[in-house]
């Protein structure tokens, strides 16, 4: 075996290679196992909830040569996953040919898992020649019908877009998801919970199941960029929405609760009950321990800047022109913000909060001084 070769297991509720829990619990420390690459700032939508919307442009800059990026990735012996994001990564055929396909081939040669984030509204032919090399095709789904999509997806668009065009894109997204799912592609649909989506989350869950998706991801609305002005759920409302979804979910559709805003060190019994239900009582339900800043960094392929996440407010940590990614990751682990939020409770299977979630919902909590009040068998 080559020094980088890894055995690649099937992604299931028992094995989510993006989850920071595995390395932290097995190694006793965080390691850089995941890199997210922002490969474009172009997008054909301007969603009202977009957490990177202010970075979107009409024309991309000149990217760093892909061979240089691959050499930087090759330095990371612990690398297990690569995520490809934007913007809409598939919008530019040049980006697909010169950046995405080489990244996928590289990952395949190393046995590395890959995810690409796409709105899936482009013609199916734009995906067919290379999508089989992607482990997870991640889409967003926050709509009841085409009217919702029209309002939400073009909420910040500067050009006039007709409802007929929006409806066509909406139907294409759903049909593409069905077709690719039938072809064996792992399609994972993410919904954010907000005052608008929470009442309809079960309906969205049903549609996601009908599209053939393998997984339904549920996250908070991240108050970043375009989404900064949107209303957030209270913790009580969020808890009620999750419980409602669990009570009415499709049993064969994996639910992944990302950046869950509840913790086993809570003094509220309903939080502890929910934590136990998610981790012990339910099948096909998981809560991913936050990868951002625990086992993942984001790289901008135009500037080379390295940050904790593509939608956070932590200043740039380094640049791949002068820093190796492992050096940047060690620098981050020594950062005061990392020290503030990198708590860990083995007995409760918790690695602490997402930074944005903590700042939004728990500004007064000192997480590292708290202890889990529940033990999972």
TrEMBL record:
Task: Offer an example of a GO molecular function term for this protein.
Answer: 4 iron, 4 sulfur cluster binding
Domain Radical SAM core, which positions?
A: 29-256
Read off the CDD domains from this record: Radical_SAM (cd01335)
UniProt xrefs under Pfam families: Radical_SAM (PF04055), YfkB (PF08756)
InterPro entries on file: Aldolase_TIM (IPR013785), rSAM (IPR007197), rSAM_sf (IPR058240), rSAM_YfkAB (IPR031004), YfkB (IPR014866)
- Sorted UniProt keywords: 4Fe-4S, Iron, Iron-sulfur, Metal-binding, S-adenosyl-L-methionine
The entry's protein name is: Radical SAM/CxCxxxxC motif protein YfkAB
In the record, what lineage is assigned to the organism producing the protein? Bacteria, Bacillati, Bacillota, Bacilli, Bacillales
Q: Which gene encodes it?
A: yfkAB
């Amino acid at each position: 075996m080559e020094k980088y070769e890894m055995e690649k297991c099937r992604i299931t509720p028992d094995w989510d290679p993006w989850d920071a829990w595995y390395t932290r619990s097995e190694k006793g420390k965080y390691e850089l196992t995941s890199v997210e690459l922002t490969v474009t700032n172009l997008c054909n939508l301007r969603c009202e909830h977009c957490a990177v919307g202010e970075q979107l442009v009409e024309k991309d800059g000149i990217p760093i040569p892909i061979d240089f990026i691959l050499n930087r990735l090759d330095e990371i012996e612990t690398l297990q996953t690569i995520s490809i994001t934007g913007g809409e990564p598939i919008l530019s055929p040049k980006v697909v040919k010169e950046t995405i396909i080489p990244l996928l081939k590289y990952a395949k040669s190393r046995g590395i898992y890959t995810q690409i984030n796409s709105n899936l509204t482009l013609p199916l032919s734009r995906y067919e020649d290379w999508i089989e090399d992607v482990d997870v095709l991640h889409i967003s789904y926050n709509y009841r019908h085409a009217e919702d999509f029209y309002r939400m997806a073009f909420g910040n668009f500067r050009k006039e877009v007709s409802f007929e065009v929006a409806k066509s894109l909406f139907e294409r997204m759903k049909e593409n998801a069905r077709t690719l799912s039938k072809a064996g592609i792992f399609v994972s649909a993410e919904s954010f919970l907000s005052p608008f989506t929470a009442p309809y989350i079960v309906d969205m869950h049903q549609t996601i199941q009908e599209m053939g998706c393998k997984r339904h991801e549920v996250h908070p609305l991240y108050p970043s960029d375009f989404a900064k002005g949107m209303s957030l759920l209270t913790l009580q409302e969020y808890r009620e929405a999750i419980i409602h979804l669990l009570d009415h979910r499709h049993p064969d559709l994996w639910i992944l609760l990302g950046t869950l805003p509840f913790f086993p060190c809570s003094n509220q019994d309903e939080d502890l009950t929910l934590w136990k239900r998610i981790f012990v009582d339910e099948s096909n339900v998981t809560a991913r321990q936050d990868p951002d800043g625990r086992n993942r960094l984001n790289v901008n392929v135009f500037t080379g800047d390295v940050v904790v996440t593509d939608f956070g407010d932590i200043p740039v940590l380094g640049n791949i022109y002068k820093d190796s990614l492992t050096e940047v990751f060690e620098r981050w682990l020594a950062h005061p913000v990392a020290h503030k939020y990198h708590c860990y409770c083995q007995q409760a299977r918790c690695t602490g909060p997402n930074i944005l979630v903590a700042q939004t919902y728990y500004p007064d909590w000192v997480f590292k001084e708290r202890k889990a009040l529940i033990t999972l068998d």
